[in-house]
Design a protein that fits this description.
single chain; 131 residues; Rossmann fold; five-stranded mixed sheet; 3 helices; 5 strands; 24% strand; magnesium; cell cycle; GTP-binding; metal-binding
Length: 131
């Protein structure tokens, strides 16, 4: 698939189903631990350095970020899991938001799980893989 990097936009940052974009495009979600490189992966795939916001500090992505990729598909950058510096309540909120998206979203065609191969998979990585 040839992508025009000038025709990519962040459609919406959503926290609930009512905010998801109304589109017929297929969606590809990126999951993984906090700071594993999901946003960097999106930027690399589309050939742009700063479309998806990146940070050295884990836990920056706190919403489902829907990126329209040249009217061909939508990448969805989801909050990372396993970040200890957010409250238990916030982690549960993220988990519920992600689970709702993955289980209910009809446009979702693929979930790509990114894992840092420099480290053994965590229990959270294994749970996500088995989900």
């Amino acid at each position: 698939m040839k992508v025009n990097p000038n025709n990519i936009e962040l459609i919406i940052s959503a926290v609930k189903e009512e905010q998801y974009p109304e589109t017929e495009l297929s969606e590809v979600a990126l999951s993984g631990r906090s700071n594993v490189g999901k946003s960097t992966f999106i930027n690399s795939m589309i050939g742009r350095k700063n479309m998806a916001r990146t940070s050295q500090q884990p836990g920056k992505t706190q919403t489902l970020n829907f990126y329209n990729i040249d009217e061909q598909l939508i990448f969805v950058d989801v909050p990372g899991y396993g970040y200890a510096k957010v409250s238990k309540t916030q982690r549960e909120k993220f988990g519920k938001m992600i689970e709702e998206y993955i289980t209910k979203r009809e446009n979702l065609q693929l979930v790509i799980q990114l894992v840092d191969l420099r480290h053994d998979p965590t229990q959270d990585d294994i749970l996500m893989y088995n989900y």
